[in-house]
Amino acid sequence: MHITSDRGRQVGQSGWSLTQALGPFVVSDVFYSAQARLHAHRHPGFVFALTLRGTIGETCDTLELERPAGSVLFRPAGIAHENNVGKVTSRCLVLEIPKDYVLRPGGRLPLPHQPRVYRDARLTNSMRELAHLAPFSRYAAQIEVEALALLMIARIQRVDSADSVAPTWLVQARRLIDGRPDKRYTLAALARESGVHPAHFSRVFRVHYGLSVTQLIRKRRLFQAAEQLRCYRRAIVDIAFEAGFCSQSHFTTAFKREFGVTPMRYRRASTAAGDAAL
Fold first, then answer.
1. What is the predicted pLDDT for the residue at 100?
2. 73 neighbors 115 (Cβ within 8 angstroms)
3. What is the extent of the structural domain holding 215?
4. What letter does residue 104 receive in the DSSP assignment?
5. What is the pTM of this model?
């Protein structure tokens, strides 16, 4: 991450985390051992958790949830839950929002009353910002985290609202895209799977989600490529081809348009920040 950790700590016998308190908010980069089990426990605040790697199962009373890579969990404050990790080491970014921040005087900020797993690119992309907090200023990082917390609350409301009025076939298509970011979907294939005409599919998708199918898929590919640049030393041209771009120059242009820097500068900045945090 691009932040300096206040402390590293064990998560029972199941893994470890890098945790930082930024004002009333807590940000953690958590690693779980493969097939680990975390017994029932609670968090005092409201939790958003992005699974970056692996799959994490979560049980809250009788509610069983699966948290695959790329999904965002929302959990209300104080809910007891157990976790089971899949067959590979898992990693997640966690943002904990204090209870009194949400239940503020003058009205509760609107959040679901039950845990839920979202497979929504906007939520995923927003949570990824936790990996890019300003390393030069703790105060600046705190402002960024508070802005992110409010953005996540607003986007959950938008997703829930869109899903509540969207046709069933559209919600299922969106979940299909979010659930399999590695698959190369086409508009024609999605429309055929949904049983509607491609033009109708495209129009309704944009109305409800604010961008086209092509734009969503490209954003997901670019964020996957950014993760590859941060975590692995693979050649940029190989990452570009894997992300579905026909050339490295095409990839560089799209990447710079999305993130404001070239892939090479992005990798160098990520590496430098990671070295500084060690």
1. 86
2. yes
3. 164-277
4. -
5. 0.58
